[in-house]
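Below sits my pick:
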Amino acid sequence: MLRHTRQATTSNVYVHLLEEVKLGAADSVDGVLSDLTARRAERGKRRRERVATPVATK
């Protein structure tokens, strides 16, 4: 267990680490959501292209 002479020192260390963990998690979630958004946009684009393409009839 880490101990410092002053409680404030220990708190400052852990607060700093928690902020880094939160930012890393936020970046990870942002990346996942960005990928999902891009995939959804691409899928919608392909659907619109299929609908806009006339079907050949014989």
In short: The mean pLDDT is 86. The chain is about 80% helix and 0% strand. Residues 1-58 form one domain.
